[in-house]
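Supplementary Methods. Inverse-folding protocol.

Structures were first reduced to a discrete structure-token string of length 425. This string, shown here, constituted the complete conditioning input.
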């Protein structure tokens, strides 16, 4: 006779199941054939839809609870093969509410009482934990989405700012997008050096060239002129067709004399650059090349935002602007004319010659005009950047000066092509 024969089977099972009576989990005990022998009160409260599950086949109970087939198969496979199973998430809908449980089960073995051999397991309610984790994941996902939205908006703003920068002088652009931009709504009276230039007979050129080719020529010209103006520290007021209006002394100034010298240096560099690009423009249809005339004046102007609430233009107004335009119209091809105020500021550093005394339209008295030749200092002239080189066998002319590094890289590729050709020969 075995020891188990002296004890009541039902009492022994109850005793072994004692620890689960007050457990917060839904516990069950099944025999080796997975038939449920006992469940605790929480099992019944967790799953009231089941009713009495005694002697029910546990996989069928899982199916009745709506557990997916793959998870049921996983349970049977692992409990038979490994003797234990852990399913981290079992989603069960109870009374219209989705709840989440972990299912832990293991085979039990007892040498003294064979009827304790079976499967013991429990459902652990992890619904609150699952909701918290889901909320956390949703917050993280939202955070990622928000970051992506912010990054996309930043890229859009950066692209917008880049496009906007092309319509504004860098000095004005910086003042708008910085804390110092508020004072730009006011107007100021300042002593400025004003530059005005245009292309001679540009109307004839626009009538003879195709629109696409004309756009290529004018964009090339204005791009080079703008690059020089910015490099010299000028504020580009506007392009008026082929005309260029630049002023020095606002928003930054290094003094009247230095502003005037920078403006003259800019004009000389523009004239040199136009000469360097003549062959390029002739190749794309400008048979006579481009020739410009320039006027420079110095005097008190009103500078600030002018316009309406819908559109403002940061510009300069005053008689020096009008005079610069008049001097430009009086100038000969590739000539720089300046007024006496500008001459008095630069005379010690720049070689100038008396040109004429004129009474421009709209001015009451004659104006003494001077023609600019070049800076007196050889050192200054030699320091000036040249973008064309002519040797005994090679002529190099940089067409686009906006990216010199890229131009150097192109020259390097050309050199490599020539070297490869020599190797083949």
């Amino acid at each position: 006779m075995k020891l188990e024969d002296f004890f009541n089977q039902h009492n022994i099972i109850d005793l072994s199941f004692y620890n689960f009576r007050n457990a917060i989990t839904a516990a069950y005990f099944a025999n080796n054939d997975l038939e449920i022998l006992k469940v605790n009160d929480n099992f019944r409260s967790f799953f009231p839809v089941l009713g009495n599950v005694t002697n029910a086949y546990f996989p069928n109970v899982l199916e009745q609870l709506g557990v997916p087939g793959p998870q049921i198969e996983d349970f049977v496979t692992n409990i038979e093969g490994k003797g234990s199973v852990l399913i981290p998430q079992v989603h069960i809908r109870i009374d219209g509410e989705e709840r989440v449980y972990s299912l832990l089960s293991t085979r039990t073995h007892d040498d003294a009482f064979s009827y304790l051999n079976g499967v013991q397991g429990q459902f652990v309610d992890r619904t609150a934990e699952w909701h918290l984790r889901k909320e956390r994941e949703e917050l993280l996902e939202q955070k990622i989405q928000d970051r992506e939205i912010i990054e996309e908006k930043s890229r859009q703003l950066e692209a917008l700012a880049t496009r906007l920068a092309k319509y504004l002088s860098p000095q004005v652009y910086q003042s708008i997008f910085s804390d110092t931009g508020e004072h730009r709504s006011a107007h100021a009276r300042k002593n400025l050096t004003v530059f005005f230039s245009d292309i001679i007979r540009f109307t004839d050129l626009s009538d003879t060239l195709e629109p696409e080719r004309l756009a290529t020529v004018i964009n090339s010209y204005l791009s080079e002129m703008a690059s020089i103006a910015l490099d010299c520290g000028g504020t580009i007021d506007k392009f008026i067709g082929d005309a260029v209006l630049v002023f020095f002394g606002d928003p930054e100034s290094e003094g009247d004399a230095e502003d005037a010298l920078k403006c003259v240096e800019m004009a000389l560099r523009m004239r040199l650059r136009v000469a360097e690009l003549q062959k390029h423009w002739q190749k794309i249809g400008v048979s006579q090349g481009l020739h410009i005339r320039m006027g420079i004046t110095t005097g008190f102007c009103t500078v600030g935002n002018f316009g309406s609430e819908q559109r403002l233009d940061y510009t300069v107004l005053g008689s020096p602007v009008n005079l610069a335009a008049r001097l430009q119209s009086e100038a000969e091809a590739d000539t720089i004319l300046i007024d006496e105020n500008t001459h008095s500021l630069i005379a010690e550093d720049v070689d100038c010659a008396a040109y004429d005394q004129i009474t421009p339209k709209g001015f009451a008295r004659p104006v003494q005009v001077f023609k600019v030749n070049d800076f007196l200092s050889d050192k200054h002239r030699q320091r000036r950047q040249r973008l064309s080189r002519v040797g005994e066998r090679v002529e190099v002319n940089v067409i686009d000066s906006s990216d010199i590094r890229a131009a150097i890289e192109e020259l390097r590729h050309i050199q490599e092509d020539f070297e490869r050709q020599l190797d083949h020969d």
